[in-house]
Amino acid sequence: MYDTIVIGAGQAGISVGYYLKKSKQKFIILDKSHEVGESWKNRYDSLVLFTSRMYSSLPGMPLEGDKHGLPSKNEIAAYLKKYVERFEIPIQLRTEVISVQKLNNDFLIKTNREEYQTKNLVMAAGPFHTPNIPSISRDVADHIHQLHSSQYKHSKQLAPGNVLVIGGGNSGAQIAVELSKERATYLACSNKPAYFPLWIGKRSIFWWFDKLGVLHASHTSIVGKFIQKKGDPIFGYELKHAIRQKKIILKQRVIAGKQNEIIFKDSSSLEVNNIIWATGFKNPLCWMKIEGVLDKEGRIIHHRGVSAAEGLYFIGLPWQHRRGSALLQGVGNDAEYIVKQMNGG
After folding, report:
1. Which of 190, 193, 186, 191 shows the shortest CA–CA distance to 261?
2. What's the pLDDT score for residue 309?
3. Comparing C-alpha atoms, which of 217, 272, 226 is closest to residue 249?
4. What pLDDT is recorded for position 218?
5. Letter string b/e over residues 91-112, b meaning 16 or more CB atoms within 10 A of that residue's CB
6. Quick check: 63 and 40 in contact, CB under 8 A?
7. Contact 30/117 with Cβ under 8 angstroms?
8. Is 339 exposed, middle or buried (0-12, 13-18, 19+ CB in 10 A)?
9. Is there a contact between 341 and 19 (Cβ–Cβ < 8 Å)?
10. Rounded-to-integer distance, Cα 254 and Cα 265, Å
11. What is the mean pLDDT of each run of 10 residues along the chain (345 residues)?
12. In terms of Cα–Cα distance, which of 169, 165, 170 is closest to 187?
């Protein structure tokens, strides 16, 4: 019997582990990966964070290097591994959760290895593991090469010919810019992209966000509500320049697929050879057998990560409390709050 079990050994899970270690709890973190930082290593080769090192650290251990510089994915993977080793955070790897259910006042967790029982359960698997690929993908011809952005590593994975990147977030923008250097590239977005600079006056944009209070605005504040309504901007101007130079052709929202063609909201169509779905992720909690955790739309019911189910907590959700809740720079704050609530507030 454990005091607490954390599911997920990414930045959210190990941040909780840091505070659990300080509170002297008996706990373990379960993760299906083969090594800490694996999810970062598996992302596309050229990935660079848009948050500077100054805002890409977890509690108790700053990320080394130029604090205004942008870290690579491999740098973050190595940092997470070193973090776990430094604080001796107990992790059981290669352990995939099959089901979670409430057993009297405790939780029973069935995995591919064994069963675990715990008083408290923290879901730190995060929202970035189960690809969300729209049903339209089934309406295009089999010979069209399709990948989700989480599966994309480099251009050699693609078939010859053009590529359509669907989704206007930062990952889709970075991938489209990279591919535009060697092939005809199209980017389909629901809304016209808005751009923010990465630096202002040699300082990271996130330094300015911090000083202006944006990073600390809660999801219920006037500033927080405004930002959520506007959605995330594209950080940096590479995409904007590529569109101006016609290296990337911007298309409207995709509404249908028809064999070799993709049809857009303005009724235009495009014959495609490759599609990359930069369409985000969906809730991976199909194996959770606990009532009252999700609402009718499948969204997690919580207040700052504290579930309505006693002893059940969540971390790493977008806007869990603040803008950075799903990012490296904000997850530590949520981890500290959750462990405090677990220990009586």
Report:
1. 186
2. 83
3. 272
4. 74
5. beeebebeebebeeebbbbebe
6. no
7. no
8. buried
9. no
10. 6
11. 94 95 94 93 89 91 91 95 97 93 90 95 75 87 92 94 93 94 95 89 85 77 70 88 96 91 94 93 69 73 82 84 75 91 81
12. 165
DSSP calls for 92-147? E-S--EEEEEEETTEEEEEESS-EEEEEEEEE---SSSSB---GGGGGB-TTSEEE
Cα end-to-end distance, the chain, whole Å: 23
pTM for the complete prediction? 0.85
- Long-range CB contacts for residues 99-108, cutoff 8 Å, separation at least 24: 99/287, 99/288, 99/289, 100/7, 100/287, 100/288, 100/289, 100/290, 101/289, 101/290, 102/289, 102/290, 102/309, 105/310, 105/311, 106/1, 106/311, 107/5, 107/311, 107/312
Q: Angle CA(203)–CA(209)–CA(213) in degrees, nearest 5?
A: 140
3-state secondary structure of 203: strand
Residue 163 is inside which H or E element, if any?
strand 163-166
Half-sphere exposure (Cβ direction) of 169: Cα atoms closer than 13 Å: 12
pLDDT recorded at residue 127: 53
Q: Are 207 and 67 in contact (CB under 8 A)?
A: no
SS3 assignment, position 336 = helix
